[in-house]
Task: inverse folding
């Protein structure tokens, strides 16, 4: 497997377009479309929130019932959540607009929205957007990049990733784009991720691969602990790489898993590092845990702690907060046995050992914590399992972004 | 039951003192002592964090094994957490200092600390503080108030509450003091609460009353979701009201429960409203839930949501975030059936109904949310159970307080 540049149009046969439809934002692109030249097997994972946006309901049905999907239409600005029957009708009409323009059956058109909850979409602008984009579709890195820009809300950077590997002597590509960066309204933030591949693979295995991989990637990030009503990861596989169809968990399936994981993890980390108001990507790695599940719970507890996140913002080696967050995670352990380290490109230091502070230099710790990517390494000394979780620091800007009145 | 002014010295036979021991703060009182004239039955509840401070370990043993306790020594500035064997030794030496000064057995002396994790206490200053306080003990409202001031860390106000009721024609008093207001280091914050009563009651019933009441009071507040290593509630009953000893759950026990609940709820709400950086007390009341447990989970999910808390700070009627927080709480419900209201001294408005926004005025909503005490009322329309939870808004000052380097 090898990382390459590119995003959602990196894989063969995937085209994209974007447009400024004026849905809520002015003077910027706010709609994107992904189209596969051939019908693609579609897998999806969606928010576990009881309150689910209309596009989530629409997509879940397609992923569950249809053999193929061929297009995805995404808008930023309005989330189409808590919009009742009218909201669901807009999903249908968007799909029908694609059918009219591109002769793709409406039942093979997925939709996704991100933005303000409770507002209705301006349907005519949406339909005009689809028409415009249908004429601008291209299988090019530039168009993939435009799409990644168009779906941003409070994100400060577009987020793309791609990787290639070989199956049956054929080059297979996995590419994707995603957006963060908080939860919702008024900052129009939702985790949406779109990954495409030209691999030829059965729909069942595609879904299984996605479902298992999100547990270690998207589900291990947190910006603010608020699970959105719109969270969606879609994975389309159009088979255009020309490999023999993967129908069992063989070596080729494992190669795909590896590339998919790399793309998903890269996108997930980009989302965490670009969390609302963030100045740093904050990683917690737990090693030598007794079980994988415990490693994950411990890692996530640390990156979700408001106090720890504020300390990371202040470049403060406040290990008491980290220990505290491990302690209330629900996992049992001996606080006297574990070790804590801080780590970044500026170095690595032992900070806590034998139940008390290690003999470290506060200046050196502050230097390490001043990097844009900071890792807390937790050695549980209990077993062989490990896990990582990614978040960001808690800053004035997070409060500013989320306290400002909707406008 | 009737509320009265006063705090931890309101009940008969309880004395208090405070002093500036110079443990970490300068130019302010940072130690307090509570002494009962007669040995008192002692009940306690403690943090569930796996990482427990030395005073928590010390007190748990006394509450579990000793028939009585007679004094509590509290310091602010250093938490005595993650301090190893040395930290536990300091608890013992503090208790021995009380034994020397007041002839109260060291095994009947409870201790509590709040402040920076990982630093050792200056034992000589602590011992001198005990000596000074032993000479200044008084059963007076002024001394109770001084004690409430001395245990503050990032708290902006001392927190006291008291109530009286009658048993056997005798007046019984319950009084207490507590502190908040974040979790720990460097802001030296931990939830500590001390409640005293002159009721004559068996130790078993006293513990049972406390254990059940904290579920609806202290356990229903959150400032930042970080469960401290030092959380402690101590309840002392010295029997000096002269009532016949309560040994079963009769009418008199119920009267006590009511007064205890009133004192605990008042103290808990004061803690939430004075959370780090807070400008408002943020209450969520869930009514017509199917079970009490679900009502509590739903209420707590809303007051813990960072996005909702930031919106409260911005006086933004951002109901999508509230619905979202209810939705990810883990409780199942029909989002189309429930109703949301905002409520404060400025009025009450319906904000969400039938799965979509109600027809409300944003100006009126912002006016209601500008109060210092704001309530979100959630009508689940599922049953007869209800619960309340209390938090505060998320502000720039929360970040400021917690990002500043330890000093």
Result:
């Amino acid at each position: 497997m090898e990382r390459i540049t590119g995003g959602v149009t990196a894989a063969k046969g995937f085209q994209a377009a974007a447009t400024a439809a004026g849905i809520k934002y002015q003077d910027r692109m706010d709609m994107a479309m992904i189209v596969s030249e051939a019908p693609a097997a579609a897998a999806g994972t969606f928010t576990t929130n009881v309150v689910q946006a209309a596009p989530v309901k629409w997509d879940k049905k397609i992923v569950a019932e249809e053999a193929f999907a061929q297009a995805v239409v995404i808008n930023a600005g309005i989330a189409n959540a808590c919009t009742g029957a009218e909201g669901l009708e807009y999903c249908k009409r968007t799909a029908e607009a694609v059918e009219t323009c591109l002769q793709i059956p409406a039942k093979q058109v997925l939709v996704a929205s991100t933005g303000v909850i409770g507002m209705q979409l301006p349907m005519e602008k949406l339909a005009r957007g689809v028409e415009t984009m249908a004429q601008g579709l291209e299988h090019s890195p530039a168009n993939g990049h435009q799409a990644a820009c168009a779906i941003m809300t409070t994100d400060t950077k577009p987020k793309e990733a791609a990787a290639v590997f070989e199956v049956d002597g054929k080059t297979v590509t996995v590419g994707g784009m995603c957006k963060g960066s908080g939860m919702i309204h008024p900052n129009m933030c939702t985790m949406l991720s779109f990954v495409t591949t030209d691999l030829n693979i059965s729909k069942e295995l595609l879904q299984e691969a996605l479902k298992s991989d999100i547990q270690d990637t998207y589900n291990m990030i947190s910006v603010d602990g608020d699970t959105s009503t719109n969270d969606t990861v879609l994975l389309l596989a159009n088979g255009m790489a020309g490999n023999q169809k993967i129908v069992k968990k063989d070596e080729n399936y494992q190669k795909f898993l590896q590339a998919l994981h790399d793309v998903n993890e890269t996108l997930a980390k980009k989302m965490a590092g670009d969390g609302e108001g963030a100045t740093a990507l904050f990683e917690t790695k737990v090693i030598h845990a007794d079980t994988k599940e415990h490693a994950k719970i411990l890692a996530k507890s640390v990156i979700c702690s408001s106090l720890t996140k504020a300390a990371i913002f202040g470049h403060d080696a406040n290990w008491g907060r980290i220990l505290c967050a491990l302690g209330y995670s629900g996992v049992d352990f001996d606080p006297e046995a574990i070790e804590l380290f801080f780590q970044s490109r500026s170095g690595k230091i032992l900070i806590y050992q034998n139940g008390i502070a290690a003999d470290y230099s506060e200046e050196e710790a502050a230097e390490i914590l001043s990097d844009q990517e900071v890792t807390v390494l937790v050695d549980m000394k209990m077993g062989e399992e490990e896990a990582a979780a990614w978040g960001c620091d808690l800053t004035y800007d997070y409060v500013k972004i989320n306290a400002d009145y909707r406008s």
Remarks:
- Chain B touches chain A through 67 residues (CB under 8 Å).
- Chain B is about 35% helix and 30% strand.
